TrEMBL record:
Primary role: Catalyzes the hydrolysis of pseudosubstrates such as p-nitrocatechol sulfate and p-nitrophenyl sulfate. Catalyzes the hydrolysis of the 2-sulfate groups of the 2-O-sulfo-D-glucuronate residues of chondroitin sulfate, heparin and heparitin sulfate. Acts selectively on 2-sulfoglucuronate and lacks activity against 2-sulfoiduronate.
Pfam families to which the protein is assigned, alphabetical: Sulfatase
GO molecular function (one): metal ion binding
Catalytic reaction equation(s): an aryl sulfate + H2O = a phenol + sulfate + H(+); Hydrolysis of the 2-sulfate groups of the 2-O-sulfo-D-glucuronate residues of chondroitin sulfate, heparin and heparitin sulfate
Keywords annotated in UniProt: Calcium, Glycoprotein, Hydrolase, Lysosome, Metal-binding, Secreted, Signal
Transmembrane regions: none
Cofactor(s) demanded: Ca(2+)
Residues making up the signal peptide according to the UniProt record: 1-30
Family: Belongs to the sulfatase family.
Organism: Grus japonensis
Name recorded for this polypeptide: Arylsulfatase K
Domain Sulfatase N-terminal residue range list: 43-379
InterPro entries in UniProt: Alkaline_phosphatase_core_sf, ARSK, GAG-degrading_sulfatase, Sulfatase_N
A cellular component term, taken from the record's GO annotations: extracellular region
């Protein structure tokens, strides 16, 4: 770990990678592509989408905590978006937004079990129809029917009057030695497949291609110590990657006392098993291991960039790097995502390639629904007017948005919403200017939150009561985008209907199955109490 820490003193020599990872500095001085001439063929596209990477790590000051050489390479030869957000801070709904170009409430991708239909027409389908060769590797996760039974049942029962721990306590695990590079082997294998495809097939294609690589990292690993069904709460890395982290730069987040927490935050913290005691060293290590996992993710991005460079394809390929959501890493006394706080909702978004302005930092708020129209714009395919997103191409070229967008000027806001597990209320975020407005359910039963990110970037002070006029104005904008009380009611009906159907399908096995989901350690202490709470919830008027 750079600068000291639990591995020993600073200055330990970094061993070379056991894999052919090209150091970004070795070829950073050479411009990877010439200026794009007019009338050139359509470019190829590579999209690398990881899981749970905090977008603030891609620019100052967050980028001081860990070495991300290939993120830095993309910044030097491309554009970084400083305010990019997920449209739903959980895996499947977020990816559904990215692949559909539509807000979560429009596709009804309510949780990790409820995403898009398998035959949904994505931007990749349209690009293939219009002459692109397409290929996917790794995690995709935008269709319905996936993830654990626990995950969906926890989402369906979020309105039940009980409080149960649904995750293992967040912990760290150091594996291997200073030569251990391939920690997340499944991701490395998919990266290898993508690299081999570039070198063996893409190089011989006559038409442009679009390649997608989905990574699991830096998502936490499963925690088998707590039982098979107890979620993923382990931050796992090796000494090799931990040495990429600057220990002294790790910021220990401030926490509100449990009694002062917003009620939704308290529910999230409790169900994520984060209300116990954590020392500063505990928190620092969790954050350090998470940053190390981000460094391993960056190396996989580097393998793709290096393969494109080695084959001569980089000069005619647009490369996009993003994530489905971020990771709180113990900010606000939580890990995981499922929150509108910056650590969870702010995603990385970097783009480089022909026609993309170099060394550009874009302050505009953007979100993952913008990927769909951007892909079509790159491929010169007409963009449907019903999409929630806007093409990023004008911003990538450094041009005024209203000069080229057929939809008119890009809005000055982005929308994110959440309807899944670990949060006991539908949540809506409007991000615009210096403000972040968060409201819940019907807009009345749960206190809203308002943060001034220019003055309070850590989101520690809710100023909703102090600025009622701002709250009213932002809520009016939000309601013009989505009738969120109506959406919240629809989700509540969906949750109850889905749970009743699932319960009936189990028959006499219901009590045993529900008791042994991820919340089993708490449930088994008072099983009748929790079953009765569910029956009371089911008995309420739909």
């Amino acid at each position: 770990m750079r600068g000291g820490g639990p591995l020993g003193p600073a200055g330990l020599a970094l061993l070379p990678l056991a894999l052919p990872l090209m150091a970004a500095a070795a070829w950073a001085s050479a411009r990877p592509w010439p200026a794009a001439p007019r009338g050139q063929p359509r470019p190829s596209v590579v999209l690398v989408a990881c899981d749970s990477l905090d977008g603030r790590l891609t620019f100052y000051p967050g980028n001081q905590t860990v070495d991300l050489p290939f993120v830095n390479f993309m910044k030097r030869y491309g554009t970084v978006f400083l305010n990019a957000y997920t449209n739903s801070p959980i895996c499947c709904p977020s990816r559904a937004a990215m692949w559909s170009g539509l807000f979560t409430h429009l596709t009804e991708s309510w949780n990790n079990f409820k995403g898009l239909d398998p035959d949904y027409v994505t931007w990749m389908d349209l690009m293939e129809k219009h002459g692109y060769h397409t290929r996917k590797y790794g995690k995709v996760d935008y269709t319905s029917g996936h993830h654990s039974v626990s995950n969906r049942v926890e989402a369906w029962t979020r309105d039940v009057d009980f409080l149960l721990r649904q995750e293992g306590r967040p912990m760290v695990n150091l594996t291997g030695d200073r030569k251990h590079v391939r920690v997340m082997e499944a991701d490395w294998q998919n990266t290898d497949k993508a690299v081999n495809w570039i070198k063996e097939e893409a190089i011989n294609l006559a038409q442009p291609f679009v390649l997608y690589l989905g990574l699991n990292l830096p998502h936490p690993y499963p925690s088998p110590y707590a039982g098979e069904n107890f979620g993923s709460s382990t931050f796992l890395t090796s000494p090799y990657w931990l040495e990429k982290v600057t220990y002294e730069a790790i910021k220990i987040p401030k926490w509100s006392s449990l009694s002062e927490m917003h009620p939704v935050d308290y529910y999230s913290s409790y169900t994520k098993n984060c209300t116990g005691e954590f020392t500063k060293e505990d928190v620092r290590n969790i954050r350090a291991f998470y940053y190390a996992m981000c460094a391993e993710t960056d190396a996989m991005l580097g393998e793709i960039i290096s393969a494109l460079r080695d084959t001569g394809l980089l000069k005619k390929t647009i490369v996009i790097f993003t994530a489905d959501h971020g990771e709180l890493a113990m900010e606000h006394r939580q890990f995981y995502k499922m929150s509108m706080y910056e650590g969870s909702s702010h995603v990385p978004l970097l783009v480089m390639g022909p026609g993309v302005k170099e060394q550009q930092q874009v302050p505009n708020v953007v979100s993952l629904v913008d990927i769909y129209p951007t892909m079509l714009d790159i491929a010169r395919i007409p963009i449907p007017q019903n999409l929630s997103g806007y093409s990023l191409i004008p911003l990538l070229r450094g041009k005024a948005e209203n000069e080229v967008s057929s939809k008119g000027p890009r809005p000055s806001w982005v929308l994110s919403e959440f309807h899944g597990c670990n949060v006991n209320s539908s949540t809506y975020m409007l991000r615009t200017g210096k403000w972040k407005y968060i409201t819940y359910s019907d807009g009345r039963s749960v206190l809203p939150q308002l943060f001034d990110l220019s003055d309070d970037p850590d989101e520690l002070t809710n100023v909703a009561v102090k600025f009622p006029v701002i709250v009213h104005s932002l809520d009016k904008i939000l309601r013009s985008i989505v009738n969120y009380p109506k959406v919240s009611s629809s989700v509540q009906r969906y949750n109850k209907e889905q749970f009743m159907s699932w319960k009936q399908s189990l028959g006499q096995n219901y009590s045993d199955v529900i008791a042994n989901l991820r919340w089993h350690q708490d449930w088994l202490k008072e099983p009748k109490k929790y079953e009765n709470a569910i029956e009371k919830w089911l008995g309420k008027t739909k």
